[in-house]
Design brief:
six-stranded mixed β-sheet, 12 strands, alpha+beta, 6 helices, 289 residues, Deoxyribonuclease I, Chain A, 26% strand
Length: 289
């Protein structure tokens, strides 16, 4: 009887492992950042009403689980809310409620539990709408969400941010503020910081970000897919040489793949930025090895 029982026990043990292995496989996250380009009639054929359905189709086709947005005005956020499978957090940068561009975070309702959320401004007074340092035109904002993945049980913090496009000091100081706020808000928990940094990789502010977080482009287990650049200016023949949109991660996040998506329709891009998509898993203290 012993010789019969041992194979049965082994088989039972292996079968018990299958749900855990399946859950780990299913816990892969599709994480993205996407500057939507603000809604303005000046864009003519590229104005938001002509692009919004393509943006939603892209998000759904590539099956984003959680994604950062930038430049979304209230009507654009409302349009993306038309995807009922997603919920969002984030406020308008001009009044801390609805006015102005958002750095909203969208996440799948069925997959994630929202534990906490908040916002801060990239300035010397981050607790309220304000201009920072040498920024002259725009309030700059970061929004964040503390999420729990129902599939894996893992909890993590996700930040969406948009750095200033003119102020050099503002960009440098914004990176320092980001790392300070990430530490204050997330502590030692897994962290993802995604957004439009208006900065190429060689700049001081990107080097600052990389003192605490890794650039997903650098640590992807597979070679990066797609063009290097992320800004296209709505030009289908853009050389796409400047990378200004990033996804940074803490050591607990293992990046499986990285892609810059070039989806277009009838010779037009859905936005003047390309979305960046990474597939990742959130593990223990360090998931990179």
């Amino acid at each position: 009887m012993t010789t019969v029982r041992r194979p049965l026990l082994l088989l039972t043990f292996l079968l018990a492992l299958l749900p855990a292995a399946h859950a780990q496989q299913q816990a892969t996250l599709h994480i993205a950042t996407y500057n939507l380009r603000m809604s303005t009639e000046r864009d003519g054929a590229n104005a938001w009403p002509h692009r919004k359905e393509l943006v939603k189709s892209l998000v759904r086709y590539h099956d984003f689980d959680v994604f950062a947005t930038q430049e979304g005005l209230p009507e654009q956020i409302a349009d993306l809310d038309g995807m009922p499978e997603y919920a969002h957090v984030g406020v308008g940068r001009d009044d801390g409620q609805h006015a102005g561009e958002h750095s909203a975070i969208f996440y799948k309702r069925q997959r994630f539990t929202l534990l906490r959320a908040g916002d801060f401004w990239l300035s010397q007074t981050p607790e309220r709408p304000s201009l920072g340092w040498d920024a002259t035109c725009c309030h700059r904002l970061a929004s964040w969400a503390h999420l729990q993945d129902r599939q894996s049980g893992r909890k993590f913090y996700f930040f969406s941010v948009h750095f200033d496009h003119e102020g050099q000091v503002a960009r440098r100081e914004s990176a320092r503020l980001m790392l300070s706020k990430v530490k204050e808000i997330a502590g030692a928990a897994p962290v993802i910081v995604a957004g439009d940094f208006n900065s190429v990789p060689e700049t001081e502010q990107i080097a600052t970000m990389k003192t605490a977080l890794a650039d997903a482009f650098d640590i992807s287990a597979k070679p990066a897919y797609g063009p290097i650049g992320t800004f296209n200016a709505f030009k289908i023949d853009s050389p796409l040489e400047e990378r200004i949109d990033y996804i940074f991660v803490s050591p607990q996040v293992k990046v499986l793949s990285y892609a810059t998506l070039t989806d277009s329709r009838h010779g037009r891009f859905p936005s003047d930025h390309l979305p960046v998509l990474v597939k990742a898993r959130i593990g223990g203290p360090s998931a990179r090895n």
